[in-house]
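ok, trying the design again with the full structure, not the truncated one.
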């Protein structure tokens, strides 16, 4: 990676891409380019090898069975693990988040082996969590309140190797009052929205991690601010 170019890898769009999560790619590309940082995005289907030279890897949500298939293929492929060893940023949503953990619940609740890239373990909850979600982000990350929507059966237990991404203000998230998890530059969340469209602060955090920069020049935020305000007001007012 050079300091003014990043490679984004959109992992398994054929299995993991529900609720417009591909918008996360688009917003990263746009926010990088507006700052003069060139981007190259590769869409890697589940019958292709995951390249190891990406700077940011994105995984989206998925139905139960595609999620199981994706976990199996990613484990056999090993590319995501190697990229992580090289210091790549990984950002995963919902099914993608769960499968980064050591274990998640399959369609009948059976335990399925995950990738072990995050110290989390997911199972099936009693009730499906559907609706808007709002969270206050770990102050260490310096990102404003996050908003998204969730639609999942899974509940997620965080191990000592990760920190919660946020504390839930509204919604369910992991199921214990926290939402998402991160360790080093690997982060997962239950938030669709798409998450990085609704939360440009989170998008910029990933870009800063990838570029190894403490700061990025600010951008005009008219549409994203309106969207955030509208969504936050819808659940908190
Ligand atoms: N299948 C997982 C669950 O229900 C993930 C769902 C999703 O990605 N929206 O918990």
């Amino acid at each position: 990676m050079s300091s003014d170019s990043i490679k984004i890898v959109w992992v398994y769009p054929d299995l993991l891409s529900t609720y417009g999560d591909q918008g996360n790619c688009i917003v990263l590309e746009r926010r990088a380019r507006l700052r003069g940082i060139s981007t190259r995005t590769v869409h890697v289907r589940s019958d292709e090898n995951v390249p190891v030279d990406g700077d940011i890897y994105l995984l989206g949500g998925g139905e139960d069975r595609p999620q199981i298939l994706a976990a199996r293929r990613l484990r056999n492929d090993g590319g995501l693990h190697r990229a992580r060893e090289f210091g790549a940023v990984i950002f995963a949503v919902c099914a993608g988040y769960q499968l980064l953990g050591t274990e998640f619940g399959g369609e009948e609740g059976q335990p399925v082996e995950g990738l072990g890239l995050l110290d989390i373990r997911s199972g099936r909850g009693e009730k499906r969590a559907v609706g808007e979600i709002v969270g206050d982000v770990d102050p260490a990350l310096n990102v404003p309140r996050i908003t998204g929507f969730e639609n999942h059966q899974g509940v997620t237990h965080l191990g000592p190797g990760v920190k919660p991404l946020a504390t839930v203000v509204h919604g369910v998230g992991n199921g214990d009052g926290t939402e998402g998890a991160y360790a080093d530059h690997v982060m997962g969340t239950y938030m669709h929205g798409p998450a990085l469209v609704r939360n440009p602060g989170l998008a910029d955090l990933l870009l800063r991690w990838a570029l190894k920069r403490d700061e990025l020049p600010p951008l005009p935020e008219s549409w994203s601010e309106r969207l955030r305000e509208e969504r936050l007001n819808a659940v908190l007012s």
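Keeping the full-length input from now on. Residues 174 and 234 are 22 Å apart (CA to CA).
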